[in-house]
């Protein structure tokens, strides 16, 4: 009997997506399944954004190493990041909890406190919810709704050869943070340890940065998504949706000093974490070449968040290339975490 | 340690709701948590409705007695019923699946086929989704979005003393259907068996009926909700939200011949199933007395679904009363299924 575990996550999503009616005839659906959010058109000046994502105990977090408040914050943050990835404003959350019968009230209260704090920070109201009791793993499943001005939606599919590939913040810290949770007994430098764990346990969704980028519109910022699976995996999504290739410059990847410190401590290649680590929740976007400086300056001035150019979009036939520290070009290997295996 | 099971579902929902910021200052939230749907105002002629509900294997269904297609249909139907309960049109669904690793592809395909069929029947597009693997119980968690014309939202809170309490269809069949699944070896009459099982496994959300009712607006149809917990429990919600009491006439409860047949077979009181059974997904609503005939005729003419007057709204101080078959009045006992115990 073929099971979902033997089939694999990405094959499964492709299979299910193929079976879903696309409703190309419906003018109230600007964008269906396949981007960070659906884009829905109810006829007002603002378009509606909708996304859903869940955190599962034992898969995405364990309560030994993460506080209930952090779990609540992160459950909302991963959804906020999807709204940010379209350039939108988050607005309304619906929260569905699946709770093992022995879940303590203290854990539940903590999760809700974290959710509430994160909602407050990002102008999001909890407008609906559901509780069910089942199993042995806590599941927090959130649907987040947002809005965006007509003509300002940034999708995955608009990148063109010659566009410059940019990323906010730094890469790899979340993976390094996870590493320190899995190997807690290593003698890490205290400051680096605190920093990478914070990146892993309470990622900062780039909502404000996404807003600045969406103001330029898709003629300038031609494509965007957030990095959840890892730079290589999400870059592959961007290239597939835009029908382009990319030439990524390893030497330009933005790595933090804390990442180097942790990598040195456990003898891991920091570039590997930056390329394939996942859960950084930074924005990855492409910019028409003549506007790069303008866009980079605008984001940095408005938000204080650094933006780095890390590569160039090329034709699909040129594929995905990684230029390493020595200037050697080779096909970029794409690795993404499969949650079903 | 106090756990969610010891605390109980309804106490828990009240506790969590109290901790949630209500955002009374936000004009874009017409109605937050506490009704069948949230009502959101993005400035267009149509208001947005949002609801979330999940089906959990072992709690809401077992795959021994329900096909994967039925599970998929019902998972969407319970959400469609919440949109119907506000008088809205369903539009967009986001589907989140929590799958045990050993879930067969056949089960998953069946669930999706059922979802897709039900979506087609009710003009609903699947616009988002998520898959995670965890635990040993299949969970289907759906957020459904709909729309409704401004000024036509029917809430739980508008019933006034003197209004007539009405219900669509018949009551108790879903509970009878569940009974036949739990005691499969009884010699049930074949036709009655098929009918009550269908009511339980593939309930028909009253979307079209809700649309007819919302056209009258809240000055005529003063309050509405759908019966998911059971008539007594959901009537208690309506009375609490509207600050009213009710006098319910047992003799007027609409019971189907099939319900009587199953009840007789297992020696169960059919009135008990009708009052407390749950999962009927009929619409329960109150009508200003001068409009009752008009409203009842309109629904029956447009949809073919019978509507029955089953009681009268009274002052909150008069409480909730049940008049039994012999004309004796006594306080209505309220029983609702607690999913956490």
The CATH architecture of the largest domain in chain A would be Alpha-Beta Complex
Please, how many helices of chain A? 11
How many E strands of chain A? Answer: 13
Portion of residues in beta strands of chain A equals 25-35%
Largest interface: A-B, 78 and 78 residues
Number of domains of chain A: 2
Output the CATH homologous superfamily of the largest domain in chain A: PurM-like C-terminal domain
Spatial arrangement of strands, main beta sheet of chain A: 8-10-7-11-9-12-13
Rg measurement of chain A, Å: 20 Å
Name the CATH class of the largest domain in chain A: Alpha Beta
H-E string of chain A: HHEEEHEHEEEHHHEHEHHEHEEE
Query: Which regions of chain A contain 5 or more consecutive residues with pLDDT less than 50?
Result: none
**In angstroms, what separates the terminal alpha carbons of chain A?**
16 Å
CATH topology of the largest domain in chain A: Phosphoribosyl-aminoimidazole Synthetase, Chain A, domain 2
Helix-strand category of chain A: alpha+beta
Oligomer: homodimer
Secondary structure: helix percent of chain A: 25-40%
Rounded mean pLDDT score of chain A:
93
């Amino acid at each position: 009997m073929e099971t979902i575990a033997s089939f694999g996550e990405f094959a499964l999503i492709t299979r299910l997506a193929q079976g879903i009616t696309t409703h190309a005839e419906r003018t109230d659906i600007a964008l269906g399944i396949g981007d960070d959010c659906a884009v829905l058109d109810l006829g007002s000046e603002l378009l509606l954004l909708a996304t859903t994502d869940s955190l599962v105990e034992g898969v995405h977090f364990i309560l030994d190493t993460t506080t209930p408040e952090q779990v609540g914050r992160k459950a909302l943050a991963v959804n906020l990041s999807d709204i940010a990835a379209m350039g939108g404003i988050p607005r309304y959350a619906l929260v569905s909890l699946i709770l093992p019968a022995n879940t303590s009230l203290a854990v539940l209260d903590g999760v809700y406190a974290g959710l509430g704090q994160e909602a407050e920070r990002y102008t999001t109201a909890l407008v609906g919810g559901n509780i069910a009791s089942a199993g042995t793993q806590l599941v927090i499943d959130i649907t987040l709704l947002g809005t965006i001005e007509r003509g300002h939606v940034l999708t995955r599919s608009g990148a063109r050869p010659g566009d410059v590939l940019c990323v906010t913040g730094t890469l790899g810290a979340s993976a390094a943070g996870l590493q320190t949770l899995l190997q807690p007994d290593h003698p890490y430098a205290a400051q680096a340890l605190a920093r990478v764990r914070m990146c892993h346990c309470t990622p900062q969704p780039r909502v404000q940065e996404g807003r600045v980028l969406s103001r330029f519109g898709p003629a300038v910022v031609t494509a965007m998504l957030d990095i959840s699976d890892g730079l290589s995996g999400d870059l592959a999504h961007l290239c597939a949706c835009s029908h382009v290739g990319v030439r990524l410059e390893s030497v330009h990847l933005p790595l933090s000093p804390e990442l180097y410190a942790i990598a040195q401590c456990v003898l891991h290649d920091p570039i590997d974490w930056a390329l394939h680590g996942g859960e950084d929740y930074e924005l990855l976007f492409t910019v028409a070449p003549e506007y790069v400086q303008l866009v980079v300056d605008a984001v940095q001035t408005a938000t204080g968040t650094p933006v780095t150019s890390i590569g160039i979009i090329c034709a699909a036939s040129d594929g995905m290339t990684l230029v390493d520290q020595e200037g050697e070009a080779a096909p970029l290997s794409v690795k993404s975490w499969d949650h079903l295996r």
